[in-house]
Amino acid sequence: MSDPRARRSRPRAILSAPGSRGDVNPMVAIGRELDAIGFECHVSVAEPYVDVVEKAGLHANVVIDSESFHRVVSQTQFWKPWTGARRVLTEVAEKFFHPHLQFIDQMFVPGETVLVAHPLDFASLVFQETQVAKATRVSQDASSDQAAASACRLSSVHLAPAMLRHSVTPPRLLPDRGWTRGVLPEGWNRLNRMTYFLADIMFLDRVIGGPVNAERKRRAGLAPQRRLMQQWWRSPDQVLGLYPAWFAPEIFEKYSVRSGTAAPLQCVGFPLDDGVGPVNNEVEAGGHGGGQDQSAGAESLPLDRPLLVTTGSAHHGDESLVIRIADLCESAGVGVVWCCPSNPGGVVHRNIRSVGYVPLGQWLPHCRGIVHHGGIGTTSRAIDAKVPQLIRPMAFDQFDNAARVERFGLGVSLRSDSGLASAIAALLAMGDDPLSVPEVLCRVDEPRGISDREASNRREPAVRRAARLIASLLS
Hints:
The protein has helices spanning 21-36, 50-55, 66-73, 81-107, 122-137, 142-151, 189-220, 228-232, 249-255, 319-331, 360-363, 376-385, 398-407, 420-430, 439-442, 452-458, 462-471; strands at 12-17, 40-46, 59-64, 113-117, 153-158, 238-241, 265-267, 307-310, 336-339, 352-355, 369-372, 389-391, 411-413. By secondary structure, it is α/β, with parallel strands linked by helices. The strands form 2 sheets. It has a 7-stranded parallel beta sheet with strand order 3-2-1-4-5-6-7, sandwiched between helices. Strands 10-9-8-11-12-13 form a 6-stranded parallel beta sheet, with helices on both faces. Strand 6 (238-241), helix 9 and strand 7 form a beta-alpha-beta unit. Helix 4 packs across helix 5, helix 5 runs antiparallel to helix 6 (142-151) and helix 5 packs across helix 7 (189-220). The longest helix is centred in the middle third of the chain and has 32 residues, at 189-220. It is globular, with a radius of gyration of 22 Å.
């Protein structure tokens, strides 16, 4: 068997995607673009998403088996704002940490490998930091320091702006109702700085600090790092935001300049990748067909402009909510298509067509609107299709994405299920005509004084631009 660490004719990229389909698709899309420009790409994923990686022509590395993954995402507590964050860090990030770190140990070739890290990938951060620390000790000479730093290059990829902190205009991490509305309030700089500090020392460092600092000490004798998610978790080499600057202008303004050791944020735009090929137009059919179920990949495009409801690729449940939506839409003469990959065809209703996973980029232009939980992939797809969206956030970045969609007039945020009827009515009214996306949101961010070549680069597809920037780390 050949040594995976032997010098190779192709540079190597090791990417991580420790989450569900919404985490996997953009990282695989970047890997596909890197592969096209000559990289050998390996992606660490949960076992249910191996096919997504391999169908893109990339190498899959399983770090979480199917049984463990489904056990975690099927827990009710996983989909709640307070307990969800703890579950993500303990059940996903921590279980991902050691297997991915061991995989990097096996596959890393100095000077020929770039690491591409998902926000929950602390293994790549530890590997890069300790590699540089060990190499730097060889010589205190400045040029040697630079050579050591270039031996292991790391790109931190942020899928959404929610996890980047802002003490004046903080991303919304909790429900916008009741007492949680007062957590991280806009404009309260000192209070929010204290909240971030307490969250670090009382929760985040306790959950992830142990394994991270143990490896840092074992590998390079480094002293414990406190407040890991304040600055340490952003790469000193490169930080990419997979969203346009207009979607989070305050975040871009703060992080687009170098701060401490972290590299400046570069927003490349929404990746807009569904991870599948085009729908066969020959199977396009107009009937709504309540209760109809078709196998994934063979779903016919709708012709009656239904309301699309998706409850997430890994989330289970929500049947009662979907039935309520179907009843409300039926009285308005609008059909409902329920996209539920975890349970396609699980509900039979005269006004519901059940489907499995479908490519939103191809489906949304045929829909009146979409109801979803606010994942960044679905949110960005609806914006791109100029289709109004109703977001019912549950946890993670969903509250922040919902707030931004509502702020820009691109949809409605459902704060309580008691307001579902009025929210559906508002959504259907917005869907009577194609959504009028403000011109400023469609315009590519092009600062004054940039060259024509740079302006052209800014207009290229987001994943292609991300791949080009990542590849530049080895040039």
